[in-house]
Write a structure and sequence with these properties.
Layout: H1 2-11, H2 15-22, H3 27-41, H4 46-67, H5 72-75, H6 82-85, H7 96-112, H8 115-134, H9 140-159, E1 164-165, H10 169-183, H11 190-202, H12 213-233, H13 239-242, H14 245-266, E2 279-280
Helix pairs in contact: 2-8, 3-7, 3-12, 4-7, 4-9, 4-11, 7-8, 7-9, 10-11, 10-14, 11-14, 12-14
């Protein structure tokens, strides 16, 4: 707690700045970056990207539930404002913002192989991580464990290719994921992670982006607009139904399939040349 308060004293500044920075680790920011990855950066790698991202998110939620460590403002209510508390859900260890930011920005940096982007990614992750402590919603230990776990998933995504599922396994994994989302609804992030896992496991990602930057950028804008349209369309469902585990998971499953299957067909994106892959079949 002393370290949290020391960082607040040293880096506090206007809270509005840190609240804005911490939004770089929000659901909206992740959806935008996933969309950019799928439509603009590496369409053919979307499935691997999504599966590893979903598993990182799931791991974070499971560990939060197992450790069940309180956040700083639970111990001392004075360290966090109401606005800061609104950005925090569930137990504190490990930090979801730190882990997921590291995962998604790190995997993107690996795909781009750009020193400039690596620097940008490192800066974003550092600022998001600092924001969690400065806002009083995480201990330093929460953030450090989140960063370490995120780095592990970046390394896995860079070295281990997700097997392409054929036959019954293509549908068994998503079915199990949806059931798990409902059964374990109390586990942090389980609905979102299971929905993402189901969607990315199902998708073929057999498309690639246009070679010309004009159509590629236009396709990215259209794709992101459609993805967010799907995301917000689920709000028409009554809240008591919408917030059940399986419906929340279906929201993200549909979002992924729209991004990876529907949008490429709508934009008539060229198909990628098949690449040999490990196949899981039954």
């Amino acid at each position: 707690m002393d370290l949290v308060q020391s960082l607040q004293a040293a880096l506090g500044g206007p809270q509005s700045f840190w609240l804005s920075v911490t939004q770089l680790g929000s659901d909206y920011a992740f959806i935008i970056l996933m969309g950019l990855y799928i439509f603009l950066i590496n369409p053919r790698g979307a499935r691997d990207f999504g599966v590893w991202f979903a598993l990182s998110l799931l791991t974070n939620g499971v560990l939060k539930t197992v450790f069940n460590e309180p956040r700083p403002f639970v111990v001392n209510p004075d360290v966090a404002s109401e606005a800061a508390r609104a950005t925090a859900g569930g137990p504190g260890l490990p930090s979801g913002h730190a882990q997921i930011s590291t995962t998604i920005w790190g995997i993107t940096a690996v795909a781009l192989r750009s020193r400039v982007f690596w620097a940008v990614a490192a800066l974003v992750v550092l600022l998001v991580s600092l924001s969690r402590v400065v806002l009083g919603v995480h201990y330093v230990s929460d953030v450090l464990l989140g960063l370490a776990l995120g780095a592990v998933f970046v390394a896995l995504a860079a070295t281990v290719r997700v097997p392409r599922a054929e036959g019954v396994w293509r549908y068994v994994v998503p079915a199990v994921a949806l059931v798990a989302a409902q059964l374990f609804d109390g586990v942090a992030y389980v609905s979102m992670s299971m929905g993402l896992l189901a969607g990315f496991w199902l998708t073929r990602t057999t498309f690639e982006g246009h070679r010309a930057w004009g159509p590629r950028l236009l396709g990215t804008v259209v794709g992101l607009a459609l993805v967010f349209a799907v995301y917000f369309a689920f709000r028409v469902i009554p809240r008591e139904i919408r917030e059940t585990g399986v419906v929340e998971a279906l929201r993200y499953l549909v979002l992924v399939l729209v991004a990876t299957e529907a949008v490429p067909r709508l934009l008539r994106l060229p198909r990628a040349t098949p690449v040999p892959a490990t196949v899981t079949s039954a």
